[in-house]
Write a structure and sequence with these properties.
By secondary structure, the chain is an alpha/beta fold. It folds into three domains: about 160 residues, Rossmann fold, CATH 3.40.50; about 160 residues, Rossmann fold (3-Layer(aba) Sandwich); about 200 residues, Rossmann fold, CATH 3.40.50. It is built from 21 helices and 21 strands. The strands form four sheets. Strands 13, 14, 15, 16, 17, 18 and 21 form a seven-stranded mixed β-sheet that branches. Helix 1 packs across helix 2, helix 3 packs across helix 16 and helix 10 runs parallel beside helix 12. The radius of gyration is 25 Å and the shape is globular.
């Protein structure tokens, strides 16, 4: 058995059912052997997409996602997606290798420095006899360290005899961290004395399965519940659910958060968006619970698993017969939420041929299949989408936004769709992010994935548009005259439509509900980001930056063949 054969067999023995990547000199032999022996290899259009798909698959399955690219340029193309996976603490193994031992080889790259620059771990197979042992350690590190591991299997080893290899060892997961009572003293003190507490859940609480424990704790404290973006909809249906905490909070949530005197956070990073640039926590106590002490700042903190700590705090409160100080505050919050209407939060700017993205999202929330998985790209459109399009279970949502790089959302959605065959996956992307990796639509079409892509299209880069306005510069510099997405998507084998009127929103979703046989691309309109200029002569508003043919940019939705893309 050769090294390339032993490598492929080790991946199969590790239970790697799907691997994403592009073939090249360093990996083509073990990829071919992997496929020939039952492995599912998903060839991507670009190397960054391979890492993004492996990242997304890991998020939705809880297992290690595996990608492979060739040496040099193949690896360098993965940098943005690799940093995204690092920032999102995803369990990914990326297989690549050194170029042949020739000092003038034009594709040479220092792989260890590359991995370090991305924040990923690094392993190298130095001797052919250690191949499986090194792969075992790589998978174990990905699980234990919650980050990608870049594995260097030099090209010169691939045709060597593998010899006797050690057995494959399945990675051992972390055991839940249960704090001792002494570690809870400070947290219990501020929690028990709070008059208007809020229980906040982050992604760590979702991964811990802490929903019931947190609801029980909130009940003991007479506290409303809220989430970070990455835990959105964890408390869906709860009468005191404030929704997303931070810069995307609605008016009722903003009022309650401002009035609170304690936020007790479970598994949330407490970044500037969740804390509204620190304003939400400036005048109140904050208790932070996280399994990773490296995330702690200057708050009261407890190191431990979200479920275990929530249950421990609840038990301690029971022991002291804790009684909420102001239960009437919770009742007033619940009453305000019961009468809250999301559409009253904004002025609808829908026109005769464009749809306000916020109105579109409220309609899409009802029209899309209820059991959907949702994967989001990053961009200004998220301010409208995330609070208004929900999922039934917080584990069915993620955003490829840990690094703030647009363009990874489509690949992430493909990875999620492959991880959950038969489920309808919804990708939400902006026009700039979509066109950046438009080529991966071909991957979705080739795989016949049940994928619906919502492209929120205003032919501009939204963040830059806003910032140019704030700087007093002309925001039209952020506008882009994209080609029409619908004919491009159709040429690639997808079904595609443009939505210019609210009543057209059902079109891209009806096929998904009925299990249609074509992919679907839809582009919903984001009219409100358009710069509006006054016509000095006519005294009326006109829209700048129309799309080709004089038509205003619109929302579009696409769906891939034998599925929605």
């Amino acid at each position: 058995m050769k090294i390339f054969q032993a490598c492929a067999q080790a991946l199969l023995d590790h239970g790697v059912e799907v691997m994403f990547g592009l073939m090249g000199d360093v990996n083509m032999l073990f990829v071919a052997h992997y496929r020939e022996h039952g492995g599912d290899f998903v060839p991507t259009v670009h190397e960054s997409s391979a890492v993004a798909m492996a990242d997304s698959r890991s998020r939705f399955t809880g297992r290690v996602g595996v990608a492979t690219v060739t040496h040099g340029l193949g690896l360098s193309n993965t940098m943005t997606a690799l940093v995204e996976a690092v920032r999102s603490r995803s369990r990914v193994v990326l297989l690549t290798g050194d170029t042949p031992a020739e000092p003038t080889h034009f594709q040479r790259l220092d792989i260890s420095s590359f991995a370090a620059a991305a924040g990923a771990g690094y392993e190298k197979v130095y001797r052919k006899e250690s191949l499986v042992r090194d792969l075992n350690r790589s998978f174990q590190r990905a699980v234990a360290e919650h980050r990608p591991i870049v594995v260097n299997i030099p090209a010169d080893l691939m045709l060597d005899d593998a010899g006797q290899q050690p057995p494959v060892r399945v990675p051992v997961p972390h055991s839940p961290a249960v704090p001792v009572l002494d570690d809870l003293d400070a947290a219990l003190g501020v929690t028990a004395s709070a008059k208007r507490p809020i229980v906040l859940a982050g992604r760590g609480a979702v991964l811990s399965g802490a929903q019931q424990a947190l609801v029980a704790l909130a009940s003991k404290l007479a506290a409303p519940v809220a989430t970070s973006v990455l835990a959105k909809d964890l408390f869906r249906g709860h009468p005191a659910n404030l929704g997303i905490c931070g810069s995307m909070s609605h008016s009722v949530a903003s009022t309650a958060i401002a009035e609170s005197d304690l936020i007790i956070s479970f598994g949330a990073s407490l970044n500037v968006d969740t804390t509204f640039h620190g304003e939400w926590v400036a005048e109140k106590n904050l208790v932070q619970i996280d399994i990773d002490p490296g995330r702690f700042g200057w708050y009261v903190y407890v190191a431990g698993d979200a479920t275990a700590v929530a249950e421990a705090i609840g038990a301690a409160l029971d022991e002291i017969d804790h009684t909420p100080a102001q239960p009437g505050w919770l009742q007033s919050v619940e009453q305000a939420l019961a009468t809250f209407t999301p559409s009253d939060e904004f002025t609808d700017r829908t026109t005769v041929d464009t749809v306000d993205v916020r109105t579109a999202c409220l309609a899409l929330d009802n029209a899309l299949p209820a059991s959907r998985i949702m994967v989001s790209d990053i961009g200004r459109f998220t301010n409208s989408v995330w609070p208004r399009i929900a999922v039934q279970d917080a584990r069915r949502f993620t955003t490829m936004g840990g690094f703030g790089a647009i363009g990874l959302g489509l690949a992430g959605a493909i990875g999620a769709a492959i991880a959950a065959p038969g489920e309808t996956t919804v990708a939400v992307v902006g026009d700039g992010g979509f066109i950046m990796h438009l080529g991966e639509l071909a991957t979705a079409v080739r795989r016949h994935l049940p994928l619906v892509i919502l492209v929120f299209n205003d032919s501009a880069y939204g963040a830059e548009h806003n910032k140019l306005q704030r700087y007093g510069a002309d925001p039209d510099h952020s506008l882009n005259a994209w080609p029409e997405f619908v004919p491009i998507a159709k040429a690639m084998g997808a079904t595609a439509i443009s939505i210019r009127k609210l009543e057209e929103i059902d079109d891209p979703t009806r096929h998904a509900r009925e299990g249609g046989s074509r992919h679907q691309l839809t582009t919903p309109q984001r009219r409100h980001k358009r710069p509006v200029r006054r016509d000095a002569h006519a005294g009326r508003s006109r829209i700048r930056g129309h799309s080709p043919g004089g038509q205003r940019c619109q929302p579009a939705a696409t769906r891939s063949p034998s599925a929605s893309a």
